[in-house]
Amino acid sequence: MVAPGSYLVKRSRVGHDGKSSEVAGIRLGNHEFAMHTYACDNSRMATRARSGPAAVDVAIIGAGPVGLACAIEAQRVGLSARVFDKGTLVNSIVGYPLRMEFFSTPELIEIGGYPFPVQGYKPTREEAIEYYRGVAAREKIDLRLYERIERVDGSAGKFSLTTSRGTQRARHVIVAVGFYDVPNRLHVPGEDLPKVMHYYREPFGFVGQQVAVIGAKNSAAKAALDCYRHGAKVTMVVRGRQIADSVKYWIKPDLKNRIKERSIVAYFDTVVEEILERSLKLRSPDGPIDIDNDFVLAMTGYQPDFGFLESLGITFADDAWRTPVYDARTFETARPGIHLAGTVCGGLRTNRWFIENGRFHARQIARHLAGLRTDTIPFAEIHWKTEE
Questions:
Q1: Under DSSP, is residue 187 helix (H, G, I), strand (E, B) or coil?
Q2: Cα gap 122→103, rounded to integer Å
C-alpha cells in the first residue's frame, strides 16, 4: 500500500558490475525513497558474513537515529562504519505506541540532511520508522541487526568486539544505545505478574478493564487518556502532588479536566505497595487503599543499561544522574577510542539529550576520528525546541 499523496516510481540504477537495472521506489512530494535497496545490501552482507567480518574504522553500537547519524557522518569523512543492534532498526521507535505522534516537528529529527516528509504537522511512529529505513538505505549503511555486542576487548586502534554471532575488529567504537530498553522498576511484590507492563502499545486490549497507570509524565498521561477514550476504567497512581510540569501543554489540560470530572480517577502522593492478581494495595496520605485492578501500566520511565556501560570501561560522575564521563568536544570516554552519542550521554537524566541535539554528536565524533578540527558546541546555551 502506498501512502496518500504518494505514488510509485521507477528509476534506472547502475550497479557495481556496470549493469543498469530498474529500482522501484515511492515519491512523496518532492522526495523519493527506494523500496528494495536492503535486498541488494543484505545480499552483500551475507557474502561478507560467509567470508568473515572485515575490520572497520568505526563500530557503532545502536541502530537508532543517532547511531545512524554517526554512521553517515563517519562515511562522509572517509571512514568505514558498521552498525550493530541487538534488535531491529530504530528498535526503540518500533516499541513506541502504535500511531504515536512525536512531540517534535520533522525537521528537528532529520539526519544526514535528508528531508522528512510527513502527512500532518508532526511525524507519527510509522512515518519515522520508514523515514529512517529510507535514509539507511540511501546511505547504504552496513547494518548488523539482531546482533548483540557482548564485550569489547583491546584498545584504541585495535578493538575486538565479541558479538552474539562472532567477532568484529574496529579502530574505534561509538556507543549510541539510548535508554529505552531498561524500565525503572517499582520494586514491589507482584511486579513480575503478567498483567504488569512497562511499555504501552495500544488501548484495545483494555476495553472494560480496570487499568492502573503509574506515573504522571508524558507517557503516563498519554496512556491514561488513550485507554480512557477506548473504554477502559482508568486509575492513575501518582507519587507526586500533581501532574508533572513536563507534561506537554496540549496534553495537560485534557488530563486535568478528565481527572476533575472523575472520568479518570487519580490518587496523588500515593505509591503502590503490592500488586495482586485482581487488586492493588496503595499507600496514600489518608492511609492504605485497596483498589480493583486487571492491568498495570507502569509508566515510570527508563534508564541506560549501566551494567553494559560499566563492562565497556565507561566511568561515571559522582552526581545524582550517574552521568557518564566524556570529553565535551569529542565525546570520547575515559577509555580511549570509545565514544558516546545521543541520550546515553545523560545517564539517568534521560531528558537531557534527544534526537534534536543528539544527532549533532555524530559530526563532532566523526570529525575528531578523521583528525579534523572539532570545536566545542555550547549545547547547554542553545534553545532546543524538544525541551519546550
A1: coil
A2: 7
Neighbours of 334 (CB within 10 A): 13
Closest CA to 140 of 279, 320, 15, 5: 15
Map grid coordinates 509524565 to a residue. 217
**Secondary structure of the chain: what % helix, strand, coil (to 5)?**
25, 30, 45
Cα(282)–Cα(138) distance, integer angstroms:
52
Instruction: Enter the DSSP assignment of 319.
Output: S
Which residue segments constitute the domains of the chain, with CATH numbers given? 36-182+303-387 (3.50.50.60), 185-300 (3.50.50.60)
Report if pTM > 0.90.
no
Confidence of residue 52 (pLDDT cuts 50, 70, 90): low
Burial of 58 (0-12, 13-18, 19+ CB in 10 A): buried
